[in-house]
Amino acid sequence: MAATVTTPKTPMPSAIDLYNIDHLLSEEERMVRDTVRRFVQEKVNPVIGGHFEAGTFPRELIPEIAELGLLGMHLEGYGCAGLNAVSYGIACQELEAGDSGIRSFVSVQGSLAMFPIYSYGSEEQKQKYLPKMASGEFIGCFGLTEPDFGSDPSGMRTNARLEGNQYVLNGSKMWITNGSVADIAVVWAKTDEGIRGFIVEKGTPGFTANDIKHKLSLRASVTSELHFDDCRIPAENVLPNVKGMKGPLSCLNEARFGIAWGAMGAMRACYETALEYAKTRVQFGKPIAGFQLVQQKLAIMATELTKAQLLSLQLGRLKDEGILHPVQISIAKRNNVREAIKAAREARSILGANGVTLEYPISRHMNNLESVFTYEGTDDIHTLIIGQAITGMNAFA
């Protein structure tokens, strides 16, 4: 008789990692995940609800965020950690599990303020600004969107004219994360040479920043309007190595990459909260997790979270290989934010009335995701980017 072969029983996968995605990560990537997750659990979660309610950003966390090496972490040199794209994405995911405002701060600093200096700045500019930005000594912001030009930034009215060895900057920018707390602003403006990037330092005469009040989303984040009134910028503060929309659009792609990952953090936080609540909330004599409709909601959330994680992981691997195309970022940003909003709403329904309080993070995430749904390219814009890629036809004009 043939010997009986006993196949080891495969263990049940984790409810938070149904596809064992952890197995696909390197040891360094898992270390980044665990370190940032611990920081969020110990430092962000205990205070973020209060900051959201008060409409304030937890600036006291900036030194530790910097100490962890999260500012410009995907850039090389100049005091930056030089980690791979997947590690950066994982960090964004863990930060947004705490709050979108924390991830937005890190994204704006690294991908929108440091990245253009790193990619298009002079060596003098890099040496002057990047080490201080990596250490958190300097905070940066990114000025592209205007009151009348959001999805069509090429129509911007902000302009700069050259006078001797200075540019005179006039115009305004809207919905600027970190605006009023920033030490430097990377501002995009029209010139006789086309669109150029300018490094504008805080305190420059003619430069003012006013916070936008009464927000119902991203409340634990600073959002400002920037104004430039005959603001004189030294010519050496122009980013010398880029002209046209390539500069700001490349920065947006960097930020969109982080958003695609970050949205999963909010999604996971909502799913975990709903799962744990359903196991302990008793109705009709048993935990509501035992009812079919609740299990259906949880199963859908878990499946979409798994799909989003796999989508983002492949996105990161493509970026690390240097073969990432912008349309692939649009696919991930559009899908992951859409599904995160759906998951937040389903999770809220599981918690019932408890889901609308700050005792639980779900409504806070749900409100934040409404901003994430819009910024760095609205859902409609990413839909048209994908549509153009697959049909070859431009529907923007």
From TrEMBL:
Residues 141-231 form the Acyl-CoA oxidase/dehydrogenase middle domain. The keyword Oxidoreductase applies. It comes from the Bacteria. Residues 243-390 form the Acyl-CoA dehydrogenase/oxidase C-terminal domain. The lineage of its organism: Bacteria, Bacillati, Chloroflexota, Chloroflexia, Candidatus Chloroheliales. This is Acyl-CoA dehydrogenase. Its cofactor is FAD. The keyword Thylakoid does not apply. Keywords: FAD, Flavoprotein, Oxidoreductase, Transit peptide. InterPro entries: Acyl-CoA_Oxase/DH_mid-dom, Acyl-CoA_Oxase/DH_mid-dom_sf, AcylCo_DH-like_C, AcylCo_DH/oxidase_C, AcylCoA_DH/ox_N, AcylCoA_DH/ox_N_sf, AcylCoA_DH/oxidase_NM_dom_sf, Glutaryl-CoA_DH_mitochondrial. It comes from Candidatus Chlorohelix allophototropha. Belongs to the acyl-CoA dehydrogenase family. Residues 26-137 form the Acyl-CoA dehydrogenase/oxidase N-terminal domain.
